Amino acid sequence: MTFLHSAPFYRCFLTFCSVSYLLSSVSKFSKPNKKKKKSVYRCEQCGAEHPRGGGQCNECGEWNSLVEVRIEPTVSHRALPKMGGGYAGQAAHVTTLNQVSVSHETRLPTGIGEFDRVLGGGLVTGSVVLIGGDPGIGKSTILLQTAAHMASAKNAALYVTGEESLSQVALRANRLDLPTDKLQVMAETCVERICETLAQLRPAVAILDSIQTLYTETLQSAPGGVSQIRESAALLTRFAKNSGTALFLVGHVTKEGALAGPRVLEHMVDCVLYFEGQSDSRYRMIRAVKNRFGAVNELGVFGMTDKGLKEVANPSAIFLSRYDEAIPGSVVMISREGTRPLLVEVQALVDDAHGQPRRVALGLEQNRLNMLLAVMHRHGGVQTSGQDVYVNVVGGLKITETGSDLAVLLACASSLRGKALPQHLAVFGEVGLSGEIRPVPNGQERLKEAIKHGFTHIIVPRGNAPQKAIAGITIITVARLHEALTEAMQLSDES
């Protein structure tokens, strides 16, 4: 105890403390201060970032969609130094619009006529096409057929699979009897390595199946996330604009039918295609939701066979598969999908309700059906309160235009009164809230399509009446809803 209280011990203790303090100070200045890894909460639906977690996203309002994402230091991208220019493929400089050189886009035939129609006349070089649909509906099948046809037509094609093995792709090609001697395939999910391969091969078209399986080395998150899909699509789009290689991207859909991933994915690409129809149905429809090089809402009809998807040259003949005799609640509508008119049968069933009345629409918008029934009650004198109303578009086709309004109401009135409309009758027209029948675009093309299929009586809006009479065809022009109902019932009594 006497040593602890001595002066030499205190001097040694003070010296030790001083040296320790100096060493700690030097170490603070010599070593860099490592920052803590930051983390943000990112919405899986819209990609908005939030500083802290919560139950609801402030941007899109989606619940339970915030996931914690760590912000890692950025990694140098191997594909970026080889790609000069901006996002659209050109170096950023300011010029006037009249000094920009205009060149007509070069289109490549896909080998499938209906697919070329949906794309606007063929595949544009350097474009990016996003195709989505339900599982098993035929996305990989039609793209494999397209790649094989284009490869056999002396256009270099590369099929990149991220979901299936190469042996599975080869088995599918053999089952479809496709030429496989010129089609190049690769199994890869890294975007950087895919870009390097495309830069070496320089193919005319490349198919990537699917965008949800791809990832980029610049991000540390798992494939399929919002950030990975957005960044991978941006890199592939930039590469396509600079190299001239056309890209097909396969996208999965959610249970609601929308494309999985961020909404910005549809804004990046040049063309968005959706598969319509049931996976167990014989027919498939491909609709162009967005197309920078062609008509929007263009429709292509295909038939699913054991040898893949076969194009249907005359889709109207499919949708007109009717009974030999006229039945109540059925009428033919002249619709227009994209640039082509289609003849579609609309069926309606109106029955007594046992409890709360139901309104069911298959192939049409539910709210529009409710509105049309209210208009028919007010301005047509046909009441459907206390009745179940079921409306179906034959063939699984989805009608998005307003030219189907008159056909829906005539089918409902026919079913309610039990009077069958004649089979040689076709109708089209838009119904307003005040009961007026409004004209629809491309009325003359609709009339030609109906005449080509042998229809002799056509009810049209007064604004779509032809200037000259057509021999052998009775054109009935109407301006109000009650006029259309009266003319249709008179034809029913005469037949």
Tell me the layout of helices and strands:
Layout: H1 7-30, E1 39-43, E2 49-50, E3 66-70, E4 107-108, H2 113-119, E5 123-124, E6 128-132, H3 139-152, E7 157-161, H4 166-175, E8 184-187, H5 191-201, E9 205-209, H6 226-243, E10 246-251, H7 264-268, E11 271-276, E12 283-291, E13 299-305, E14 308-311, H8 315-319, E15 330-337, E16 340-352, E17 359-362, H9 366-380, E18 387-393, H10 405-417, E19 425-427, E20 430-431, E21 437-438, H11 443-452, E22 457-461, E23 474-478, H12 481-494
Parallel strand pairs: 6-10, 6-11, 7-8, 7-9, 9-10, 15-19, 17-18, 19-22, 22-23
Antiparallel strand pairs: 1-2, 1-3, 4-5, 11-12, 12-13, 13-14, 15-16, 16-18, 20-21
Helix pairs in contact: 10-12
Question: Explain this structure to me?
Answer:
The chain has 3 domains: 39-70; 106-313, 3-Layer(aba) Sandwich (Rossmann fold), CATH 3.40.50; 317-494, Ribosomal Protein S5, domain 2, CATH 3.30.230. It contains 12 helices and 23 strands. It has helices spanning 7-30, 113-119, 139-152, 166-175, 191-201, 226-243, 264-268, 315-319, 366-380, 405-417, 443-452, 481-494; strands at residues 39-43, 49-50, 66-70, 107-108, 123-124, 128-132, 157-161, 184-187, 205-209, 246-251, 271-276, 283-291, 299-305, 308-311, 330-337, 340-352, 359-362, 387-393, 425-427, 430-431, 437-438, 457-461, 474-478. The longest helix has 24 residues, at 7-30. The chain is globular, with a radius of gyration of 32 Å.
Average pLDDT confidence is 86
Write out the CATH superfamily name of the largest domain: P-loop containing nucleotide triphosphate hydrolases
- Per DSSP, the total helix count is 12
Structurally, how many domains make up the residues? 3
Low-confidence stretches: 28-35, 75-82
Q: Note the beta-strand portion.
A: 15-25%
Largest sheet: 9 strands, mixed
- Overall radius of gyration: 32 Å
